[in-house]
Amino acid sequence: MKLYDAAASGNCHKVRMMLSMLGIEHEVVPMNLPGMDQKTPQHLARNPLGTVPVLEDGDLTIYDSQAILVYLAGKYGNESWLPADPADQAAVQQWLSFAVNELWNGPAIARAKLRFNRDVDLPRAQALAADVLTIMDDRLTGRDWLALDHPTIADIACYPYSALSEEGEITLAPYKALGAWFKRIEALPGYVAMPGLGA
Amino acid sequence: MKLYDAAASGNCHKVRMMLSMLGIEHEVVPMNLPGMDQKTPQHLARNPLGTVPVLEDGDLTIYDSQAILVYLAGKYGNESWLPADPADQAAVQQWLSFAVNELWNGPAIARAKLRFNRDVDLPRAQALAADVLTIMDDRLTGRDWLALDHPTIADIACYPYSALSEEGEITLAPYKALGAWFKRIEALPGYVAMPGLGA
Q1: Which residues in chain A (82-101) have CB-CB distances under 8 A to chain B?
Q2: Over the stretch B158-192, which tens digit does the pLDDT of each residue have?
Q3: Which residue of A lies nearest to B103 if distances are taken between CA atoms?
Q4: Neighboring chain A residues of B62 at a CB cutoff of 8 Å
Q5: 0.80 exceeded by the pTM?
Q6: Could you tell me which CATH number the domain at A86-186 has?
Q7: Which residues neighbour A146 within 8 Å (Cβ) at sequence distance 6 or greater?
Q8: Rounded to a whole number, what is the largest CA-CA distance in chain B?
Q9: Segments of chain A assigned to CATH 3.40.30.10
Q10: Is CATH 3.90.1300.10 the right assignment for the domain spanning A2-76?
C-alpha cells in the first residue's frame, strides 16, 4: 500500500492516523506541494482534483481523505470504526460532511492563508471557524465522541483541522469539551502526532 | 417520516429525489429560509448547523443531505444505491465529498449569489465551477454513472447543483457527457423535477 502524502497536510494526517491505528504497513511517497507535485499529469491521473492524500492499494486508487478512511475502516478495520447500521452510518456521515465543508472552509482555510499564504478570505474563514468550533464543543459537552459512543472515522476526520486551529490564529481556549476530546484522540492506541498536533 | 424542506434548495432536492425513487411515504414541512425558519431554537435543536434538509424517522433525526442519502439507501434501498464493499463505498464517498466541497463552493455558491443574493465571492465561485464541471464531464466521458457501473447515491448527491449551474450564470453547453448524464438521471424511475431542473 502506498500513500501520496504531504507532512503539513491535515487531510493527509487523517490517513496517517488511521493507517497507524489499524497497524497497516505502507510506503509513504512525499509530495512537494509548493513545487506542485500534486498537479503533474501522473498525479492528476491518480486524482483529477490534484490534491493529497491519495492511497494506492494494489490496483485500487482512492483520493479524498474521507473516502480513504471509509475504505481503510471497511477493509482493514473492525466494524466499530464505521458501523454497517444505517442510522450509525448516517451519524458518521454527518461528521464526514462537516469535515469536508465546515472544517475546511473555516479553520483549514484560515490556516492555509497564514501558513501557506493561500489566496483566501481570512476574516470570513476565521468567523466561520468560531461557529464551527462552537458546534463541535456543544456536541462534545457530555459525550466522548462525535458520532457514536465510541471512536469512529468521524472523529479521525474532524480532528486535524480543528486541533490545528491556532495555526489559523483562532484561539482554542474557550472550547473546553473540544480540548478534552483532543486529549482522548491523542490517547488512542496508534495515535501519531504531526507538527502542531499532539505535542 | 418527516422532511424539513425548502423548494428552492438543491440539497433538499437530493432527498426529495431519493424518497421518491425509493417510494417512501413522507410528510413535507416547508421551511421559509428568507424568514429564517432554519435558525429557530426548535430547528437548531434538530440541526445545529441551522440548515435544511433535516429528516425525522421515528425518534431519529438526521441532517446533512449526504447523511440522509446514506440512511435512506441503507435502511430502505437495496444494496445497489450504496454497496457494502469497502472499495465501492469509497468510490461513492469520493463523490459525496465532491458534492459537499467542490459542487457547493463552485456552482451552488454562484447560484446562491445570483438567486438569493448571498454575500459570497461570485467570480471565485464561477471559476471553481468551471473546473468542477470539467472534472465531472471528464469522469462521465465513456461511463454512465459517477462512482460505479450503476446509479448510486453519488449520482443523486452530485446532480442538483451541477444541473442548476446556469442559475449561477455558468454555461453547461461545453459539457456534453455531463448533459447526457443529466438525462440518464432524469430518466430514472421515480425521478422528480424542481424549478430549473428536469423541465
Answers
A1: 84-87, 89-91, 93-94, 96-98, 100-101
A2: 999 999 999 999 999 999 999 999 999 999 999 99
A3: A101
A4: 87, 90-91, 94
A5: yes
A6: 1.20.1050.10
A7: A95, A136, A139, A140, A152, A154, A155, A158, A181
A8: 48
A9: 2-76
A10: no
